[in-house]
Amino acid sequence: IEFWMRSDKNVNYTHQVGPGWGTFLFHNSSNGTLSVGWNSGGTDRLNVSGVFTTLKKWNHIAIVINGKVLTLYVNGTSKGSITSSTYSGLTAFGDLQFGRTSDINQWWIGGLDEIRVWRTVRTQTEIRNNMRVRIAAPALQPDLLVYVPMDTIVVDGETKLREYVSGKHAYFRT
């Protein structure tokens, strides 16, 4: 999973990606710490401080999961890895949510761009070489599962975020 994000205000649990702890979750905290992993403790969660201390700055985030090993990259640089004794890969969990939070009145405070989900493990070189490149023909990329560059499309009168690989467009909330 990779994407560009901008945090305009650090509030606990606002910049969330995923369904929640026990399956997969990424979020930041009010002090700019980033947490990512499968569960809320032990070897199943990676906490990295100082990622979002500069507000309104775009950062490229890449979360690479290779079996039981999760590695976090920020702007193409590895910020750490964890090896889980319990979890492996990303299990099917329904919708991959960006911006949700435990408080239904609080959403993403900032920006998102270029969401990509890959079938295969991305290397640090692949992340660095492609993070600033828009994918010209996403449907022709054999290992790309999801590509949402934040373009909108109207489907049956509803504005959605256009998904270029499968055509299963994303719901959009403002």
Description:
The chain is mainly beta and 174 residues long. It is built from 1 helix and 14 strands; from the N terminus they run ββββββββββαββββ. A 6-stranded antiparallel sheet has the order 8-7-6-1-10-11. A 5-stranded antiparallel sheet has the order 5-4-3-2-9, with no helix packed on it. A 3-stranded antiparallel sheet has the order 12-13-14, with no helix packed on it. The chain is globular.
Itemize the secondary structure elements and their pairings:
Layout: E1 2-7, E2 16-20, E3 24-28, E4 34-37, E5 45-48, E6 58-66, E7 69-74, E8 77-83, E9 98-100, E10 110-118, H1 124-130, E11 144-148, E12 152-155, E13 158-161, E14 170-171
Antiparallel strand pairs: 1-6, 1-10, 2-3, 2-9, 3-4, 4-5, 6-7, 7-8, 10-11, 12-13, 13-14
Descriptive labels:
single chain, 174 residues, six-stranded antiparallel sheet, five-stranded antiparallel sheet, 1 helix
Structural class by SSE content: mainly beta
Widest sheet, order of strands: 8-7-6-1-10-11
Calculate Rg over CA atoms: 16 Å
Q: Can you count the beta strands?
A: 14
Helix content: under 10%
The coarse silhouette is globular
Q: How does the major sheet shape up? A: 6 strands, antiparallel
Strand percent estimate: 35-45%
Short précis:
With 174 residues, the chain is mainly β.
